[in-house]
Amino acid sequence: MQAKTRSAWMVAGAGALWGLISLFVRILQADGLTSLQIVFFRNLLAAAALGIIIWVKERKLPRFRLRDIWMFIGTGMISIALFNYCYFAALTQSSVAVASLLLYTSPIFIMVLSAILFQERMTKQKLLSLVITIAGCACITGVFSEAQTVALATVLLGLGSGLFYGLYSIFGKFALREYNAMTVSFYTFVFAAIATAPFCAAGCIQFTAHHPGDLLIGTGLAVISTVAPFLLYTGGLNGIQASRAAVLATVEPLVGSLLGVIVFDDPFTIWTLLGMVLIFGAIAVLQLPARRKAEEIHG
Length: 299
Prior knowledge:
By secondary structure, the chain is an all-alpha fold. It is built from 13 helices and no strands. Helix 5 (96-103) crosses helix 8 (152-175) and helix 7 runs antiparallel to helix 13 (270-298). The radius of gyration is 19 Å and the shape is globular. Residues 290-299 have low confidence and may be disordered.
């Protein structure tokens, strides 16, 4: 298998594993864990799993300079902790398809924030992708049908997950200038766990004491749908362009939506399907300038 093909499969595999998040989350929610407790559970176990991997490879844990702590507060406490909470809360109030699709508005937030913070130029393609995304979100909410199918609060939670997920790329851009991807990810999970610990650590300890079997579910969430896809995605990026990787990763909401319909009997309307097509289309449009530029360079 050629290196580019292998890398593409790695990225697509990462997206598929991310798409399994709802399976673990809904089991934990059904057993009594709140969204905030699951956020703590996931990030604590992910930090532990990634720490073990780093220790096995390096025989020591990575360090960071105290003056750079704001980077990990940004990636962990502001981005990942709040993204997880918004996404898991949206899963409790809507179908997996709706929550996953609203999460995938994150490239639009990245585009807007990059224009503000890094003076990246707003092109016609970027503006078009923004309009298409708004139309896709409108379809998902059901505003074009006879009755609104998704509550406004749920839409805001879903968009919040996209915003905070997008912020990871912004904070991560600064952190990756100073540290490698493994170090950034490890401390991201550590700080995300620290952010939620005061609110739910005691409850999680009591919960696992009475439901020891759910520790395995939490470990599955941390390893299968957090650490493993990160390693696959990072490895895949070494062999393909970032723009192509971003498109391949959109297999995540497809897997999540299919899982929701098959396993959880989630409703899947024509408006949800149209919203899916529009949001995927917006992501594809957003990649057009990068693809053309790459063709000019390599052509």
